Amino acid sequence: MNAKKFIENQVDEIAGTIGREKAISALSGGVDSSACTVLAHRAIGSQLKSVFIDTGLMRAGEPQSVAAIFAGLGIKVEIVDTKKEFFAALKGKTDPEEKRKAFRYAFYSSFGRQVLKSRAPFLIQGTIAADIIETQKGVKTQHNILEQIGIDPQKGFGFKVVEPVKELFKHEVRLVARELGLPEEIYNRMPFPGPALATRIIGEVTPERVALVRAATVIVEEETAPLKPFQAFAVLLADKGTGIAGGARTFGDILIIRSVESKDAMTAEPSPIPFEILTRMARRITKTLPRVSRVAYELTSKPPATIEYI
Ligand code: XMP
Fold this sequence. Notes:
This protein is α/β, with parallel strands linked by helices and 310 residues long. The protein has helices at residues 3-18, 31-44, 62-72, 83-90, 96-118, 129-137, 145-148, 170-179, 184-187, 207-224, 275-288; strands at 23-26, 48-54, 77-81, 122-124, 160-162, 231-245, 248-261, 269-270, 292-297. The strands form two sheets. The protein has a five-stranded parallel sheet, with helices on both faces. Strands 6, 7, 8 and 9 form a four-stranded mixed sheet that branches.
């Protein structure tokens, strides 16, 4: 694929489709939505409004660092704080599928409000070829935003969806993102699920439990960075384990370190992390997070396990 040519064609096509109208883009910092946002910005400039929905479930500093990267490219990103809405939607929920549904509903209702507020008749979506294939197969259902928020793009409000990278696969989107001048931390970004840290918490998703997983994730990402795993992260279990602190017995949280190697996320193997790095992560996690009494490394492949925990 010729990334330069692809960019030229897409910029022309987006400009032609949108004309003098407005468009809105939901940016997550992932490579797909990032590439689409830059393409659309090149095509229509200030007619594009880019929003980052801050669910309260992103990794440490992610909304701000993504907005800063885009500011550096001359693209203003509005961070929409929807933390309260997401934690309210997830409150009391422990069933994995219910948690996913609650997240999806909160996402589409808050993004839907932004779309209506902006009065933009066009939505820029980072749908890629694999999403379309998986949606057709019934593996994923969350990609058609308009249907999810109950809007029929044709009849309802006349919204039109523009999907500039829908014919590309992930590795091709990475090439385009690189050619667009996005930094490596974006074009080589580790996959991160839509429902974010909620997929790494067993049991209820509360602000305190998210903060714990977020802090442990920083340590896991730092320590495994030189090994360049496909994905590496921390998971919080719902059970407790006995520990000792200051000579007294404690009953603390149990964290799992998950790191996998994969090409396409359809199958995965546990990363062969040197023992020294594993024990250093465990030490750092228990030292920084005294609530944690146990840290374990996961050895399961996909299948039979999935990569995420919910
Ligand atoms: P699983 O856990 O199914 O994950 O083995 C496969 C890959 O997909 C990511 N993932 C998601 N991505 N929305 C997404 O955009 C989701 O709901 C979702 N669930 C899992 C996961 O991180 C892995 O790369």
